């Protein structure tokens, strides 16, 4: 499915709608360059899940996790930009987090995690249309 948004707010709203429908165990792999809207999308997703937390980009800490209100589930937000090896990912407990059906996981820069991702991972591609500074193409594969 292909969606074009014309502002950060529109991306958040779109993701919020998706967040409202997610079942536990869902994994999102978010592909795209710096500034293409991945973190903005995660903010909307979190709101759709009912999280009140302010979502900050976990670039320096690799991931943040948040309890999902009124459920036994947790939301994990990974940014793997700084990771160099799958071994580092294993040290962080990534494979267990992914396997736990009580978790909903969003992953920015997911390349290094590819071998751990289940077949039903939702892959989403973000593209910045350079000619239109506020347009982003959001494509679910
Ligand atoms: N349509 C849009 N969708 C998402 N972000 C947008 C859009 N238009 C402008 N922006 C801006 O682009 C930036 C995207 O940053 P961010 O979501 O952190 O990207 P990434 O995590 O992919 O590096 C934000 O400053 C946001 O406000
Ligand atoms: Mg980001």
Give an overview of the whole structure.
This protein is of the alpha/beta class and 141 residues long. It has one domain: P-loop containing nucleotide triphosphate hydrolases (Rossmann fold). The protein is built from four helices and seven strands. It has helices at 8-21, 38-48, 86-91, 94-99; strands at residues 2-5, 27-31, 63-67, 74-79, 103-108, 122-128, 136-140. Strands 1-7-6-2-5-4-3 form a seven-stranded mixed sheet. Helix 1 (8-21) crosses helix 2 (38-48). The radius of gyration is 14 Å and the shape is globular. The mean pLDDT is 94. Bound molecules: adenosine-5'-diphosphate (ADP) and magnesium ion. Magnesium ion is lined by residues 38-39, 57, 79, 108. Residues 38-39, 57, 79, 108 line the site of magnesium ion.
Cross-sheet strand order for the largest sheet? 1-7-6-2-5-4-3
> Helix and strand string, N-terminal first?
EHEHEEHHEEE
Ions, cofactors and other ligands present here are:
adenosine-5'-diphosphate, magnesium ion
Helix percentage: 25-40%
Strand content: 25-35%
* Secondary structure category: alpha/beta
The CATH C-level class name: Alpha Beta
Mean pLDDT: 94
What can be said about the biggest beta sheet? 7 strands, mixed
How many individual β-strands? 7
How many domains? The number is: 1
* Backbone CA Rg: 14 Å
Termini separation comes to 7 Å
Would you give the CATH topology? Rossmann fold
- CATH second-level architecture: 3-Layer(aba) Sandwich
Individual helix count: 4
Shape designation = globular
